[in-house]
Amino acid sequence: MTLVEFIAIVRYNSKVVLTPEYVERVKKSRTLVEKFLNENRAIYGLTTGFGDNVRKVIPQSEAERLQRNIIRSHAVSVGEPLSEEGVRALWLMQLLSLGRGYSGIRPDVLTLIAECLNRKVYPYAPSEGSIQNLPVEGYVNLVLMGEGQAWLGNQLVTGHEALKSVGLDPLSPACKEGLCLTNGINGAEGLALIALHDSILAAQTADISGAMAFEVLRGTLLGCDYRLHSLKEHPEQAGCAANIRLILSDSEIAANSMYHRVQDPYVIRCIPHVHGAAKRFMKDVSISLIREMLSCNDNPIVWPDGNGEGLMGSNFDGTYVGAGSDILCMACANIAKISERRTDKLTNQSLSGGYPAFLADKPGVDNGYMIAQYTASALVNEIRGLCIPATSDSVPVSANWEDPISMAWWAAMKAVHVACKLQYVIAIELMTMSRAFDLTRVEYGHFSSATQSVHDKIREVVPYIKGDRYLGPDIEAIYSMVKNGDIVKNVQARIGTTLAF
């Protein structure tokens, strides 16, 4: 599965189909689990308790109760409910990990999860208070047993009622299945993939708003000269500079401003360097997260060779996911801080090169975009606070049986929040850039066809401002265009190629 396909299912409700090959390898793995159980082998989670209770031998007569108990007892997260796409990401990751054929879960359970995704069952699961994602997984998977709660429209109903409303029946977890459904790093990985997708899209959009800044602030494209960037061994930096040159290839303003000043302030001149570094971080994280998405992160692993074996280890560990999420936060912070500075420069009459104060229609009477810049500044401050690494911390749990803890859940949650805030920062920049387009003097020349199309696309949903008005809907409308990739798609259609990343 690719990242694009993952997001298509999680965010846009594309259908999930389990292939015959998928079902067959899951069946084979389940056969081995039942063999182990009949032989009464000492295998973690099958014939023993969990965590520090690994010392307790569980008789076969208690196997099903053990599996129900692990789901029930783990449902202890608190606070605001996990978003619908967060729940869908968790379930989809469980399908991917448990479906690799090394977990011993029954196909019926995975089929039920797939059908819950396809029929838009949305369990209620508090999202706070998890070291990796176990309590959240407990809440989500209570619904598979007909327990817990799920949303039916705007109303919370029992898990049984939610399943019944879409024509599904609950299942009782068999041996090992409760452990499968509350194990691994599936929830945090799913959130991290959402954050990765949104961060990449935000970075591409930032190249576009950066190109617009070159025009409205009359920056010199010599700062994006390919010769300059060929001397740095960072292809992402060169790629950003190439994106800006391509976007502005037919801009009269950019051509006329080439020698407008000796060199630009950092906020213009360093766009390729800052954006490029952030993209490098995102690429590195992408490698780890995509590899994790394609892995089996269960414990124990059901190994099929010979007589079969239960391999007890730590494939559930979330360090890859947690560290990657922490790095994503820092990458987004670097793009956010330079985007907000461009917005500030444009709204500051002392630095904007001739635009009215705060881009207002009648400065003094009108406040224009004064407070919108405040919002961007506050969002950057919030992003900085969220950049404190979660994975540098560790609080032992389970009577010190689980002593190094990844804290990957909070790292992934932070990454989702940060990517969202970055998209808002860029939306505010695009809003002010569009206003500057309206106010730019004709004698400077025409804008590039690509940036003009961005302005025109924004004007379809955000009308020209005359005097002060309530700007909340304007910001939300542009944010939606950033989040859905409309700005990037619009520019790529104009330049006839994909923006370098």
What does this structure look like?
The chain is mainly α and 501 residues long. The chain has two domains: 3-183, Fumarase C, Chain B, domain 1, CATH 1.10.275.10; 191-295 and 324-495, Fumarase C, Chain A, domain 2 (Up-down Bundle). The chain has 20 helices and seven strands. It has a three-stranded antiparallel beta sheet with strand order 2-4-5. Strands 1-3 form a two-stranded antiparallel sheet. Strands 6-7 form a two-stranded antiparallel sheet. Strand 6 and strand 7 form a beta hairpin. Helix 11 (235-247) packs across helix 14. The two termini are 20 Å apart. The mean pLDDT is 93.
CATH fold group of the largest domain: Fumarase C, Chain A, domain 2
What share of residues are in beta strands? under 5%
Main sheet: strand order: 2-4-5
Radius of gyration: 26 Å
Q: Categorize the overall geometry.
A: elongated
Task: Give start-end ranges of low-pLDDT stretches.
Answer: none
Structural domain count: 2
Number of DSSP helices? 20
Roughly what is the average pLDDT, rounded to an integer?
A: 93
Listing every helix as H and every strand as E from the N terminus to the C terminus, the arrangement reads HHHEHHEEHEEHHHHHHHHEEHHHHHH
CATH H-level homologous superfamily name of the largest domain: Fumarase/aspartase (Central domain)
| Helix fraction by DSSP (H/I, runs of at least 4) | 55-70%
Distance between the termini: 20 Å
Structural class: mainly alpha
CATH architecture of the largest domain: Up-down Bundle
Largest sheet: 3 strands, antiparallel
CATH C-level category of the largest domain: Mainly Alpha
